[in-house]
Amino acid sequence: MDLKSLLNWRLHLVVIVLSLLAEWIGILRIPLGPGTLLLLPLLYAFVLGVVLNPHLFAASENVIPKRVSAAAGPVILIAILPFIAKFGSTIGPAVDQIIAAGPALILQELGNLGTMLIALPFAVLVLKMGREAVGATYSIAREPNIAIISDRYGLRSAEGIGIMGVYVVGTMFGTLFFALMASYIASLDIFDIRALAMACGVGSGSMVAACSAALAEAVPASRDELLAFAGASNLLTYATGLYVSLFIALPVTEWLYKRLAPLRQEARHENV
Amino acid sequence: MKTSEPTDMTLDAEALEELRPEQQLGKTCLVLAAVCLAAWFSNMVNGAPLLDALPGMLLLYVMVVVGLLIGRVMPFYLPSVAWVSLVSILATLPVMPGSEWVVAQLAEINFLAMVTPVLAYAGLTLTGREFAMFRQTGWKLILVAILVFFGTFVGSAFVANLLL
Questions:
Q1: pTM score, whole prediction
Q2: Most confident of A31-40, A96-105, B25-34
Q3: According to the model, what pLDDT value does residue A28 have?
């Protein structure tokens, strides 16, 4: 670790200024059709950081030298840790509720493994993606999942690019997509509406809000019940999501990727 | 794109072991102090004034250091994030003595404000190689993201439907 770059005062000062600016702008809600586009401060912070990145605009070299920017990558690994500590502190006080939620709720957490079942084969075989696909599809790409990828591969690896891509897409359009999808699938009448409510608990506050609100809108009579199921499921995902993605989802994704990658090569040869 | 900076690529893989935060506790504690400072300021706007948030911020710092220490001495590997979250879950369990005080101090810390600086660091430290990579795969990632969201929602609904 290059301590001089990691402790570069300009880097941290710029981050403080960008964070203050982003927090000051606050959460923006943009109604769009049946859902709401939710913009969070972390998105502005990321975009502002990219704009000031010396590798993208030469003028930014005056703010942060390229040398510092390139060497300061590991700082993200450390910066995510205070957030993880705060995250854990929301789970401890709610432990009774989580135990009371019961085995049905616990087992549906395994459904979160569905992220890679369709997306990984599509990414590798159709889009011919490389290891970005592992980071992109092993989870729903929220903050704890980013922390795992950051710890395992580093955020500047191919896997890191993959998860950051899905993260940015999810941040911008996730709530809108969940609202649309939940109400549409509910209208198809395939699943028990309570099962859909549990499925809303994906471990993102804004997504579960949009998803359960859309369901409650679709079946107003059972509104309270649906919100309770969604809330309990989301709490459970907060509690278990980190461990399920680390010990089950990531190994399964790696296993599946190893089997899909050779098929991608064959498909390439056929095209030639 | 891999050929543009090949040494960087191999360095990343080799250096990853060395870069793990728990491997260099001294340096990590210094950098951690700097990032906590940024998070502390970030919390000013939607969290709490600096002085009110100080105990909570120090608690987070201590939890992280304790988590890293545990990760360092454990004979098997678990990512530092797992140890840190475990420390913080245990410290806030209702049966834990003093947990009420800990929870009250951490209530001054805004959940989202802790992530804002992380993403600012991420944006500032992306390199040319990553921009090239994202430019090449950006549109694909949008398609993949939609399938990821669809998969987790339908997957959970399917399992829950069987059990209800």
A1: 0.73
A2: B25-34
A3: 82
Domain borders along chain B are 6-125, 127-164
Report the alpha-carbon distance of residue A200 to residue A209 in Å, rounded.
8
Residues 6+ apart with CB under 8 A from A200: A178, A182, A207, A208, A211, A212, A215, A230, A233, A234, B153
Mapped onto helix, strand or coil, the DSSP state of residue B8 is helix
- Structure-block tokens of residue A189: 């009448």
- In this prediction the ipTM stands at 0.82
**Among all chains, which residue has been given the structure tokens 């005056």?**
A62
Cβ-based contacts of B147 with chain A (< 8 Å): 118-119, 122-123, 137
Cβ under 8 Å to B: A residues 20-79: 20, 22-24, 26-27, 40-43, 45-53, 55-56, 64, 69-70, 72-79
Contacts of B117 in chain A (CB under 8 A): 15-16, 18-19, 45, 79
CB contact under 8 A, B125 and A75: yes
For position B14, what pLDDT does the model report?
46
Rounded to an integer, what distance in angstroms lies between the CA atom of residue A247 and that of residue A163? 17
The pLDDT of residue B8 is above 60: no
Residue type at A247 in one-letter notation: F
Q: State whether B46 and A77 contact (CB < 8 Å).
A: no
Contacts of A41 in chain B (CB under 8 A): 46, 112-113, 116
Mean pLDDT of the residues in chain A: 83
Give me the DSSP letters along A13-42.
HHHHHHHHHHHHH--EEEEETTEEEEE-HH
DSSP state letters, B23-54: GSHHHHHHHHHHHHHHHHHHHHHHT--HHHHH
